[in-house]
Sequence to fold (1037 residues):
Amino acid sequence: MTHDQSFTNQKFKLVGSRVNRPDGVDKVTGRAKYGADAAAPGQLVALFLRSPHAHAKIKKLDTSRAEKLAGVKAVITSADLPDHTNGAQLDVLENCMARDRVLYDGHAVAAVAAIDRETAKKALKLIKVSYEKLPHVTDVDEAMKSDAPLVRENIFTRGVDPKPTKPSNICKVSTFGHGDIEAGFNEADVIIEKSFKTEQTHQGYIEPHACLASVGPDGNGELWVTTQGHYTYRTVCSALLGMDMAKLKVTSSEIGGGFGGKTHVWIEPIALALSRKANRPVKAVMTRDEVFKASGPTCSTSMDIKIGAKKDGTITAGSAHIRYQDGAFRGQWGQLGAMTAFACYDLKNVQSVGYDVLVNRPKVAAYRAPSAPMAAFGVESTVDLVAKAIGMDPVALRIKNAAKEGTRASYGPTYGPIGIGPTLEAAKNHPHMRAKLKKNQGRGMACGFWFNFGGQTCSDINISADGTVNLTLGTVDVGGSRASMSLICAEELGIPYDQVKANIADTSSLGHNDTTEGSRGTFSSGMATIFAAREAIEEMKERAAQTWDIPVEEVEWVEGEARAVGKKNDNLPPLTLKEIAGRAAATGGPIAGHNEVVADGAGVSFASHICDVEVDPETGGTKIIRYTVIQDAGKAINPDYVEGQFQGGAAQGIGWALNEEYIYGDDGRLQNAGFLDYRIPVCSDLPFIDTEILEIPNPNHPYGIRGVGETSIVPPLAAIGNAVSNAAGVRMTHVPMSPPRILKAIEEAAEA
Amino acid sequence: MRYEAPTTTKEAASLIAGEKGEAFVLAGGTDLLVRMKTGLSDPDLVVDIKHIPAMQDIKTTDSGTKIGGAVSGSRLNSNKKLKKAWPGVVEATNLIGSDQIQGRATMVGNLCNASPAADSVPAMIAAGAKAVVVGPTKRRTVPVEKIATGPGRTSLAKGEIIESINLPKRTGKSGDAYLRFIPRTEMDIAVVSAGVNLTLEKGLVKTARVCLGAVGPTAVLVQKAAKAIIGSKLDEESLKKMADACSAACNPISDKRGTVEYRTKVAGVLAKRAAKIAFERAGGK
Fold:
């Protein structure tokens, strides 16, 4: 059956209500099983030996003494792994285990599996590695210089003409835009040009990477793992290790945060390889130090932004030169930054150029709306400077230039109905905007954009004989989606919320589902759930028709029951879902609904944030006084968790804006691989984060849903940057705006 | 690894003195256990001092207050008399870690861990506190500022254990205060800190001690800073003099927590603010 995914403006009974999450009790009582909570008989402990150097050749790697240690059951180096030279997965495997070179501090060079942790620790000490240190580079601008140490010798810049003949740390140049920016700047009354920098941050999920891997000699394997996408882990791990996809069963545990960092494999393929070699189950759990050094943080960046405007506020041209480091492996992060930079605005002339640059740092992974917050910091700070230069209110300037339905986006497509204008209007009218500020306090605002994604999804609905319903999903629940999916399922079937039990299937129990990323969970799994429920309803109507011995066309489904329509059927009392389910054995067997879909048309998402800060002019310390998030959700299925996403993104953005950063020493080693000196906000650092949900329906979803998970982290760097600059009386251009940076800026401004 | 839990300080001292390998005292364990977990320490012997009665005492005598080496931060916080006499010392200790850590962490542990950024230490030094050091054969009493000699290093000989901290008796109008700068609001380590203790006579500062943290290899007692406010009512000029003296006494490093310039500047700022609080607590106007 094909289903129409168009928005229908359905009236809801349950969707939009605030319900408790079905996984809540387990999580608050400690019963929930996370990545490190699984155990198997005879399991071994895996530990990794990691590079102490930022960049070095591995001259000799001798594991023989470790292998001889009693209790050691397997040792793995790159020599024990399938050779993917010239293959598509080479980079992925080489990041999991170094080949001839280590490319960053913390890069794995060997792994051991032993009967206990103490033995594994001893074994690591017995592995002898001799390194030849190579020059390293960790700064993005330094890495782009022609005399910079080469991170990889076989990378030639893509996206430039003519094709380069010399290798470079610049792996890709991506250009977006339209119009004629030179002409645009010529029309401008005011031009602001400014450079910005942001430091590298980590998603900071509380649960480290952890898994339990088991591969038997028959080629069958199982992986229990904390992940945002167990199907993707299956695809990648089976390809890396040469296993049959169907024979590797991957189960996603409860997840203690991912935010993009659990979309890639790190220790998991190696745990599987160790298990295969040892013929025993292997448990691997990263330490926090390893998480910081050897998982996938987001980029540090450097950029130049130029915006020209007329005195009436019309932006005549915008250009962005955006340089993002991808770590030691190619990525598309600079490209994404360039795509998102000007996406909030309706511009006649715009150009953004993104550079993807290699450095000796860990491979960059996605972090909540990856790449967008940094570009927004540059652009939204510059927009504020334009507003000041022409003496216009910064919100009014943004409203005047906001993209709308029909606007050609700076990255190419033409927008449908979008929420940037409404979020800005809501910001303008919000009481927060008129609240009085005290001495040393400042207010800032900024807006932000994210694409959102749909992708491959499927869901099963199985109706039990007692009328309760199992909803089987393959999209990992990272933010309360089981509650939303249960609400949608109950809404469609016309039954109470607590009659639905949602489960996340393992990879052998349900077809492929894309990773929970790109804010796709509620949009795509919601769609598959609606359609699967409608399939189940059709089946139940058939069963009712059969029971009544009338044509199915005379049966309708209303409020959880089948009703016979038409005067001749007046004598037939309705059949409830429970009654139909109870008779299923006699009417054709179990009742189920199923749907598989490529969910296209995830509507783009916009947000506007307002922030008040107080800066201590003598210490440079900043306190967030008040914070408001206004975002378009399309349709909020469970408003509590939509607000939670808004607040969570803002909280992470506050940490990023003020204190979080990877600090590298001159030796190229990470100085602060722990939560003591990598400062995510603690509870008392944050004010109550106020939220306002706007609902501008996505025309491509039956309920109008847009993803909400990521956009909320896009505006904070800029909103806080604008607020701090207003409070301190000096423009801040370097994130994080840590106390030493703020105090230095204040002092430099005073001297000037 | 051996674990011992003796019931006298002398016994504890002898156990440590007699150990050939690496031996550690376990008080709250909030530093030691973290070090062991992360592989920074791998002791052969751990001597738990929490079962020694003298280590658990808070005693007020004619000469002052004696605080046992195993007394936790939360016990200091629930002692009203002590908080009234030495609010700065108690506050400084209570800044360490979380509520859970406060249930374990001790001032003496903080002192012997010998971090330049230890929160309780500048407050103790400003207070003029003394440490009672017990060895296998003899006892001695040492000013707190003589204990730490550098990051992670102390003047204690092998087998010497600090049994208690003695805070002097409070007389007349007096007050102390401790402030630290951290980028967050809690759960952090001082980037720079200042403890000030003073007494008043006829509304003027009669005696003062000013001590800075995290601006050198050990906490720094700044006599010039104290001199700058003695005889004053903490007018702007003497405060500025004090702040300048503090900045001049700084010998910090630039690291992941802060720069030389930042620490030097903010040391003076914090000393001024701490002095104002101490002055007010002493009843100064």
